[in-house]
Design goal:
By secondary structure, this protein is mainly beta. The protein has strands spanning 4-7, 10-13, 18-24, 34-39, 46-51, 58-60, 68-73, 78-83, 92-98, 116-121. Strands 2-10-9-4-5-6 form a six-stranded mixed sheet, with no helix packed on it. It has a four-stranded antiparallel sheet with strand order 1-3-8-7, with no helix packed on it. β4 and β5 (46-51) form a beta hairpin. It starts with a strand and ends with a strand.
Length: 122
């Protein structure tokens, strides 16, 4: 059964940092390309960052480029999102998911975890 559990969110001031984690269950193939997505209140879910199966390649949404870093540890079935220089507009629920195809910004699974809430105060 697929299971993804996001954690690490919280309340932080503008300019602060957070590190999110996404742990996959044993049966969740995190050796696929994985990504982070976010959904702000009243807005649609949007792509944030992606990483390929071995962590050698990444790409980001323009809005987070230079501030966020995605990484992974396949031995721990975990994908991370280091978020620096946070802004109020980064406030959202953050989710991980597979990437449909390398280079795309579409999720690869219909399944979504519960997400983790990031709130950036001004």
């Amino acid at each position: 059964q697929v299971q993804l559990v996001e954690s690490g969110g919280g309340l932080v001031q503008t300019g602060g940092s957070l590190r999110l984690s996404c742990v996959g269950s044993v049966r969740t193939p995190t050796t696929y390309s994985m990504g982070w997505f976010r959904q702000a209140p009243g807005k649609e879910r949007e792509f944030v960052a992606a990483i390929n199966w071995n962590g050698a390649n990444t790409y980001y949404a323009d809005s987070v480029k230079g501030r966020f870093t995605i990484s992974r540890d396949n031995a721990k079935n975990t994908v991370y999102l280091q978020m620096n220089s946070l802004k109020p507009e980064d406030t959202a629920d953050y989710y991980c998911n597979r990437i449909r195809a390398w280079g795309s910004s579409d999720p690869g699974m219909d399944y979504w975890g519960k997400g983790t809430l990031v709130t950036v105060s001004s």
